[in-house]
Amino acid sequence: MVRFEICRNTGHWSAFTEFYVEHRHRIIPDYKISHALVDVKNVMKHGRGAILRDRTNHIVGIGSFVLGMEEHGFEYKHIAVLGNCYFTDDYRNNRTFIRGLQVLAEQIGNAASDVTEVRIPTAADNSYTNRIYQKIANKFHTFESGHGYGLFHVYSTSYDRFVEFCNRFR
């Protein structure tokens, strides 16, 4: 059983950042610390983050989103973009993953009532996330990372459809 905590204070954000920096290479191979720190800054300013704790209070995962798109200066707040999410091996299962999506869906709705679209970027070579995201959304586009991290697919769906998918597993 995991517990989700929404980042609300310095302690939460410090734990979120430490976990993200520590596990960044498992999320995106060779991901630079500076890029991970920019991600955290963007989530803090334009979205929400959550940490997942196990029964012993150890952090076993993180999840996040931003409102708006980075490439457009975080305008278009009606679009929520999921961030890099990660769970340790013992917690990498469909139940935890779906519960994480449910928490993100709730937080997106709480953050902005006018969100109409959810975009979900993932590495093109990550068969696990691509398989799940294809069930939720349509592939919107594919792009080459400007930092040499390879190809990424971006999936897009309506916020209502995202919530509907998440609620099927309650």
- Could you describe the largest sheet, including whether it forms a barrel? 8 strands, mixed
H and E string = EHHEEEEHEHEEH
Overall shape:
globular
Overall pLDDT, averaged? 93
Query: Which residues sit in consecutive blocks of at least 5 with pLDDT less than 50?
Result: none
Number of domain units: 1
What is the C-level CATH assignment?
Alpha Beta
CATH homologous superfamily label: Gcn5-related N-acetyltransferase (GNAT)
CATH fold field value: Aminopeptidase
Instruction: Determine the structural class based on helices, strands and strand pairing.
Output: alpha+beta
**Residue share in β-strands:** 25-35%
Number of helices: 5
CATH architecture level-2 label: 3-Layer(aba) Sandwich
The rounded distance between the terminal residues' Cα atoms is 15 Å
Task: State the total count of DSSP E strands.
Answer: 8
Helix content: 40-55%
Task: Determine Rg (CA atoms, Å).
Answer: 15 Å
